[in-house]
Amino acid sequence: MNTRTIEIMVGLFVAAAIAALFMLALKVSNLASYGQDEGYEIKAHFDNIGGLKERSPVSAGGVRVGKVVGINYDNQNFEAVVTISIQQGYQFPKDTAASILTAGLLGEQYIGLDPGGDEENLQPGDEIELTQPALVLEQVIGQFLYSKAQGE
Amino acid sequence: MMRDKLQSLGRHTLDIFARIGRGAEFLIHTLYVLPAILLRPALVIRQLYYVGVQTLVIIVVAGLFVGMVMALQSYIVLVDFGAEESISLMVALSIMRELGPVFTGLLFAGRAGSALTAEIGLMKSTEQLSGMEMMAVDPMKYVIAPRFLAGFISVPLLTAIFMSVAILGGYLVAVELLQLYDGVFWSQLQAKVDFYEDFMNGMIKSVVFGFVIVWIAVFEGFDCLPTSEGLGQATTRTVVHGSLAVLGLDFILTAIMFSA
User: Fold this and answer.
1) Nearest by CB to A13, which of B52, B186, B194?
2) Chain B residues with beta carbon closer than 8 angstroms to that of A25
3) How far apart are CA A80 and CA A82, in angstroms?
4) What are phi and psi of A53, to 5 degrees?
């Protein structure tokens, strides 16, 4: 086989590999969304975050508006502090409530935002006052059994 | 009697150490002459053809079928939980993190590694390598280094092709055969597959595997006994040691990358 054919074949091989890399980077993984993630950060305190993780979605009215970027524990108040990044362009009133919800019965957990009626909007670095912790199934069942036993 | 046993045990151990030593020395020598080969890219391109392009067919076919089978099998489990939209995620994560690099490594060891060993081994047993040395042509530079570099470049490229073909195979089964919704397939991937954690870690694995397999393949060829029997043994050792090295290293790398 002559050199030209060999070089063309090698060129095709490398081109195919680069195309594959691009497809994997842009279509299959989240690299394309790295750029648009710039947003502003707000904080929220929760008694219990359940199975919430970094990169869990944050949604309002079912629309994805941001993601969880940090989870810490507050040693003073003994609460979990969740840092949320909201995409630029979405605004929420100051008295917005945040609750940790579960997608489906066994699905992953996400933060749902419930906008209030305040005239002022949340600014970067602000804190959400109204929060509702994650529903821990064991506790709910425990309470149910306890109230049932008391009733008898 | 007892002494004979002890002696054979000792000799085997020493043989193994000597082999490891020769392998390390060979690797250092190869890396030392590697920059010189960059001045002659034509030699590397020819080897890229034999090592990379000719392995492409088996990689594409294997990738397609692995992806399709993964999609079919995960459907059986996921449909019970009503989570069949996650098929794409199941296929993509297993392919990117584990199966892509490992499968490519195993296939490469079998298809290209054995061919490299046989070729270099035959050159050695027909005294072509000694002939080159006689003519003051360094076989490390003109025979070993281009093959080493070509193999090292090929494995990550083949892995990327394997991964994307496997995901397309999963797509074919999920969307065409199992009638899942096409948009959900891709949006699940974009939402949950992380470029660095999932994709780059897979590619790092493939770079490590490529290095080790090519090292084993060219070393076994260079180090083989110059007889037809020695050549056969060297080719077998390439495939066996190469595959075992891929599987062992895969466990170590997975433990380092994904255990936290």
Assistant:
1) B52
2) 195, 199
3) 6
4) -130, 165
Give the number of other CB atoms < 10 A from CB of residue B42.
11
Question: Measured between CB atoms, which of A6, A10, A20 is closest to B164?
Answer: A20
Torsion-angle region of B27 (φ positive above 0: left; ψ -120 to 50: alpha; else: beta): alpha
Cβ-based neighbours of A136, under 8 Å, separated by 6 or more: A48, A50
Judged by CB atoms closer than 8 Å, whether chains meet at B190 and A27 is answered as yes
At A113 the three-state DSSP class reads strand
Chain A CB within 8 Å of residue B179 CB: no
ipTM above 0.85, yes or no: no
User: B72: burial class by Cβ within 10 Å (0-12, 13-18, 19+)?
Assistant: middle
Tens of pLDDT along chain B (260 residues) come to: 888 999 999 999 999 999 999 999 999 999 999 888 888 888 899 999 999 999 999 999 999 999 999 999 999 988 888 788 888 889 999 999 999 999 999 999 999 999 999 999 999 999 998 999 899 888 888 899 999 999 999 999 999 999 999 999 999 999 899 888 888 888 888 878 888 888 899 999 999 999 999 999 999 999 999 898 999 999 999 999 999 999 999 999 999 988 76
Interface probe, candidates A30, A34, A55, A105, chain B, greatest B C-beta count within 10 A: A30
